[in-house]
Write a structure and sequence with these properties.
Helix content: 25-40%
Keywords: Ion transport, NAD, Potassium, Potassium transport, Transport
Distance between the termini: 16 Å
Pfam families: TrkA_C, TrkA_N
Strand content: 25-35%
GO molecular function: potassium ion transmembrane transporter activity
Shape: globular
Largest sheet: 6 strands, parallel
CATH architecture of the largest domain: 3-Layer(aba) Sandwich
InterPro entries: K_uptake_TrkA (IPR006036), NAD(P)-bd_dom_sf (IPR036291), RCK_C (IPR006037), RCK_C_sf (IPR036721), RCK_N (IPR003148), Trk_Ktr_HKT_K-transport (IPR050721)
Number of strands: 22
Protein name: Trk system potassium uptake protein TrkA
CATH topology of the largest domain: Rossmann fold
Strand order of the largest sheet: 3-2-1-4-5-6
Structural class: alpha/beta
Length: 447
């Protein structure tokens, strides 16, 4: 598959890194030679030092043969214009990053399609959705709904209260068990577990289960004492904060602390003031946080543009008794450090946007893909085609690549967990979790 990326900034470079693992034909275009040099030496891709809005540049990149053209420069006009040109020159599919929320209105979809822009992404909205999902389940670090919630994947940090530590998984995850452990993040290592592996304290464990067993999972990991989130304090009044406040469930109330007075006035015009209070102040000011009731707050979300500030603010909130903390960490180099400090959920809107685009490069038979930054792993939904290799043997006989496990399947709209003796049928939607595995190797089992 030929993929052209316009913009060697955070989203473009992160996306190029993800795609280069799968032996794709990647061309990265940028006007800054230094940015291109920073990535081209480490990854298998072609770089072009030029403007992505140049017709000749697009032709030199082979846009007429491109399966996917992606515009992810900081300039939304550049992104949209280059997508329009790319489509006119023969690109099969185009996607542009935008900074204006109005553009992603469903009513405008046909308008942009007619221009030649197939998809628009607004990273702040994607990040807000992840934040809101995290607030709905205060005891979970990550949640991923498979096939409209038929299966649920939960990433959970294990503490002393967990009931299933230090036991072989073969004794815990039996065919009749209501969950499977599909991956374990331990320190810097990601483990695709086998029967003899055990869960250890401070592991991040990824559970695959069905919706009705979520309370059971909560019990066995010892998280029943975590209170549900009702009051949320948000530090920083940027676009992600606004989108998060607007998409929170009705039973939640939010306080947004923003230092800029004019920005506070702007936010007040947009949010529902019955459920969201905007406070003009410095979120690092401890007396202000106490005055605004941080000790009675169940969640603290730090969304300023400064990663260090967000990390320190979440550490402070934890010391003041806030159970659920979420930090925006835009510098990818800081993500592992933030995780080691155990500050809670890490949100990187650039990585989220790259992950969202990532699924577009896979075959149409892959319905949903998610790159889990914290586990350095992919989760994907594949549809088993009639006569495909995946349908001809039991799971344990398939010889799946090392680093791959099947978490579950959806058959006739109903979620089922998978064991070694499971036989996958044509039409089943199968959830595959893989670490350091070329996705094309997995696709071959399903096509």
């Amino acid at each position: 598959m030929k993929i052209i990326i316009a913009g060697a900034y955070a989203i473009g470079t992160h996306l190029a890194k993800l795609l280069s693992r799968n032996d794709q034909d990647i061309v990265l275009i940028d006007e800054d030679e230094e940015r291109l040099n920073n990535i081209s030496n480490d990854y298998d891709l072609m770089t072009i030092h030029s403007s992505p809005s140049s017709i000749q540049t697009l032709k030199n990149a082979g846009v007429q043969h491109a399966n996917l053209f992606i515009g992810v420069t900081p300039d939304e006009n550049m992104n949209m214009n280059s997508c329009i040109l790319a489509k006119a020159l023969g690109a099969k599919r185009t996607v542009a990053k935008v900074n204006n929320y109005e553009f992603i209105d469903e009513k405008l979809k046909e308008f942009f399609n007619n221009l030649g822009i197939d998809s628009l992404i607004y990273p702040e909205n994607l990040a807000a959705r992840d934040i809101t999902n995290g607030l709905k389940m205060s005891w979970v670090r990550q949640r991923w709904d498979v096939h409209n919630g038929a299966l649920i994947m939960l990433g959970i940090k294990l503490r002393e209260t967990c009931e299933i530590l230090n036991e072989p998984l073969k004794d815990l995850c039996k065919p009749e068990s209501p969950y499977h452990i599909v991956a374990i993040k331990r320190g810097e290592d990601t483990i695709i577990p086998r029967g003899d592996d055990e869960l250890k304290i401070y592991d991040m464990a990824y559970f695959m289960t069905t919706r009705n067993y979520i309370p059971y999972i909560r019990k066995i990991v010892g998280k029943e004492h975590y209170v549900d989130v009702r009051n949320v304090m948000i530090m920083g009044g940027g676009n992600t904060a606004i989108r998060a406040a607007l998409t929170m469930p009705e039973y939640m109330n939010a306080k947004i602390i923003e230092a800029d007075e004019k920005r506070c006035e702007y936010i007040n015009e947009i949010v529902d003031t019955d459920r969201t209070m905007v406070i003009n102040g410095d979120g690092r000011d401890l007396p202000l946080l106490i005055e605004e009731g941080i000790k009675n707050t169940q969640a603290f979300v730090a969304l300023t543009a400064n990663a260090e500030t967000n990390i320190l603010a979440c550490l402070t909130a934890k010391r003041m008794g806030v159970r659920k903390t979420i930090a925006m960490v835009e510098n990818l180099d800081y993500v592992s450090m933030a995780e080691s400090l155990d500050i809670g959920t890490i949100v990187n809107k650039k990585a989220i946007a790259a992950s969202h685009i990532y699924q577009m490069m896979l075959d149409a038979d892959v319905k949903n893909t998610r790159f889990l930054m914290t586990a350095n792993a992919d989760v994907a939904e594949f549809t088993a085609q009639p006569g495909s290799k995946i349908t001809k043997k039991k799971v344990y006989e398939l010889g799946l690549p090392k680093g791959t496990t099947i978490g579950g399947l959806v058959r006739n709209g109903e979620g089922h967990l998978v064991s070694g003796n499971t036989e996958i049928e044509a039409g089943d939607i199968v959830v595959v979790f893989c670490h350091n595995v070329n996705m094309s190797k997995i696709e071959k089992f399903f096509n």
